[in-house]
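Private note to self, pasted from the team thread so I don't lose it. Backbone tokens:
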């Protein structure tokens, strides 16, 4: 790779990472209300997201054996939206899900957030930890983030300016899985 190509690629990653950081930093002032009411899960899943294919890996409804269920849904505003469900299930189910999603994942990360992941070599945007117990944006290292698909809808020179991604984050020690989907 020529130096000029390298510098262009580095600049692109910096712009993308910066845009995610800025979006997240400034969104607090005008961010739409985030829906966290788990009773609305089925409505959000079926009516609002199922048509775009980005939630086909989500459960159709909250599993009966799920515990500590949390959702975070941000309706589309200025072209961005996200949807996450976090739940605990028996360890054998979590292990089975991890094996299933590992085999179909296009990208794999350990901990971190979308800002960390996009800035790695051949990195792609993922998600923030919207369903965290605290105000942290990053997943702890105990989470394996598996990207099932991404779509870059940016234009030349503005890679990842628009797009979407979806996948799961799995923490086997906590027996927990987070299904996520993002659009920006």
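Design output:
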């Amino acid at each position: 790779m020529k130096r000029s190509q390298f510098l262009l690629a580095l600049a692109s990653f910096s712009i993308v990472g910066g845009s995610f950081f800025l979006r997240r930093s400034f969104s607090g002032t005008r961010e739409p209300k985030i829906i966290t009411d788990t009773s609305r899960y089925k409505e959000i899943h079926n009516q609002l997201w199922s048509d775009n294919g980005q939630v086909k890996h989500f459960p159709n409804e909250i599993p009966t054996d799920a515990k500590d269920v949390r959702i975070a849904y941000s309706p589309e505003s200025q072209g961005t939206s996200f949807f996450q469900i976090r739940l605990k299930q028996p360890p054998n189910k979590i292990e089975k899900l991890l094996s299933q999603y590992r085999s179909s994942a296009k990208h794999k990360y350990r901990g971190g957030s979308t800002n960390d992941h996009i800035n790695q070599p051949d990195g792609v945007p993922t998600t923030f930890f919207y369903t965290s117990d605290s105000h942290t944006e990053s997943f702890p290292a105990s989470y394996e983030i598996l990207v099932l698909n991404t779509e870059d809808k940016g234009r030349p020179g503005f890679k990842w300016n628009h797009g979407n991604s979806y996948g799961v984050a799995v923490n086997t020690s906590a027996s927990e899985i987070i299904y996520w989907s993002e659009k920006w």
